[in-house]
Amino acid sequence: MYTTQPKKMLIVNILDILKNYTDENHRLSQKQIIDILEKDYNMKVDRKAVKRNLLNLIDSGHYLEYSESIRTNKKGEEESMYSDWYYIRDFSDAELRLLIDSLLFSKHIPYSQCKELIGKLEGLSNKYFKSKVGYIRSLPENLPENKQLFYTIEILDEAIGEGKQVSFKYNEYDIDKKMYPRKNSKGEVRDYIVNPYQMAATNGRYYLICNLDGKDNISNYRLDRITDIKKLDIKIRDKKQAKGATQRLDLQRFMAENIYMFGGESVRVNFRAKRYIVNDVLDWFGKDVTFYEADDSEVSVSVRVSEEAMFYWSMQYGEHIEILEPDSLRKKVSDTAKVISKKYGK
Q: Among 76-90, 105-119, 240-254, 273-287, where is mean pLDDT lowest?
């Protein structure tokens, strides 16, 4: 049993009840609010006190919805009656579901932090939402365990905003399933110094788009592989000086041209594709692709894309496409196909 609470807590408890018990499909009368106050908070109050505090919540900026009707009291006077109270939330259940699913399908957020974030999102709704999404607790435990991820994002956000370089260690997994920092040619742990431009999520991964200090091209690094990040007191290199970047980095275009985030300069690629994979082509490359020379079964496609990324994409869709240009890419695909055929031809 709760100890008796001070009256000044009444408005706080009423707000808590509205957040936990109500939405557009679940509304409460003042009588129901009084009953919950007595049962869950050990507070006995009258209808007038509840009404006064509900109106005070509205005056203080809380978004509450209700129904209003007019009745005649015992003195023959008309007075307003309020009922069907519910709390209007910043996020609908559908929006919260979308955010939670985004976390579930994420491949870069550590297990414990993912679970904690989902719990916070649940807290933005009410008990009815929580009862419907119990499945979200069965998270896969093979998620990455880099607990520095959110700190890395925080430092990068500051560095990008201030136009400062960062240094970090970049890690790779070994067969023991543990991460180890990359080393230089001398066998020493390598420190990466980069000019950070933007962060972007694609294919369930979170990447830093940057320029490696001393190089001319744009590079991409997975944030869940970055550790020991530091913001440096050195101004970043202008994006205009890096190959593959425009003065104002067009993120949408960059992502479309770097579908696997390999980086490198984009080239014009032409290929012949089956008509039934047009949806896949648009999903991967966006609507900047050009279709031409179409017939009932095939269509030619022209797109700007990282040549290395296009090579891997052609391996994935090799049965359905044929690279036409550039010749260097066509030859690389052909040579690789021969190697694969030889391995499986026995």
A: 240-254
- The yes-or-no verdict on residue 274 having pLDDT over 90 is yes
* CB-CB contact of 14 with 57 (8 Å): yes
**Domain-by-domain residue ranges, the chain?**
7-87, 93-137, 149-249, 266-344
Which residues lie across from 299 on neighbouring strands? 273
How many angstroms separate the CA atoms of 318 and 234, rounded?
Answer: 45
Nearest to 169 by CA among 211, 210, 223: 223
Contacts of 147 (CB under 8 A, 6+ apart): 110, 112, 113
- Alpha helices for 266-305 (secondary structure H): 278-285
CATH code, residues 7-87: 1.10.10
Identify the CATH number of the domain defined by range 266-344.
3.30.70
pLDDT by residue (tens digit) across 113-147?
878 888 888 888 888 887 555 544 444 555 556 77
Contacts of 102 (CB under 8 A, 6+ apart): none
Number of other CB atoms surrounding residue 122 within 10 Å: 17
d(CA 197, CA 208): 8
Peptide bond into 326 cis (omega under 30): yes
